[in-house]
Amino acid sequence: DAGITQSPRHKVTETGTPVTLRCHQTENHRYMYWYRQDPGHGLRLIHYSYGVKDTDKGEVSDGYSVSRSKTEDFLLTLESATSSQTSVYFCAISETMTANNQPQHFGDGTRLSIL
Amino acid sequence: ELKVEQNPLFLSMQEGKNYTIYCNYSTTSDRLYWYRQDPGKSLESLFVLLSNGAVKQEGRLMASLDTKARLSTLHITAAVHDLSATYFCAVVGNQFYFGTGTSLTVIP
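Predict the joint structure of the above. Result:
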């Protein structure tokens, strides 16, 4: 299994509070991704990173920011959490975006509830 | 934006039966992935399909890709309870795009 650790695994917080989720990899992969998974929507990309300090937006980036100061760590921040951000968040990694046949590898997910 | 549609969204089938899950996508892509997700778990890669006509098989699952029709199928042969899970397809455009998933329940 790919070495991907997400923390925390579960979190309950209140509307308006800041929340940071962490993804740590031991595979030295260049690309890292944050997805949210909601019923009826599959997985939707929030942000991704293609290198240290290099990030780009996905299809549902509003209300989220990311940072990548080291190859192994990719942080997702909700500056002021809202109830619509209640979801399961998955981190994924890949060696490249499109150039080879390797799939993404996923972490175990973080279940976030915002009351 | 690339759209990926899967059908059916929910599938309940008896053990021993065959069935097919369909994945349609809206624009040209030359690679498609299938994943499995057990309840409360992460996604596990099943197949990577890289070219038109590609076919991959693992146990009771067989995946195929028709890039001209923008269609991939995941065929289940003689289903067993252990195959109960949610199956996702994903297509690569400028990023990875996932289908909404097919929740499969195999009834003994």
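The first strand of chain B starts at residue 4 and ends at 7.
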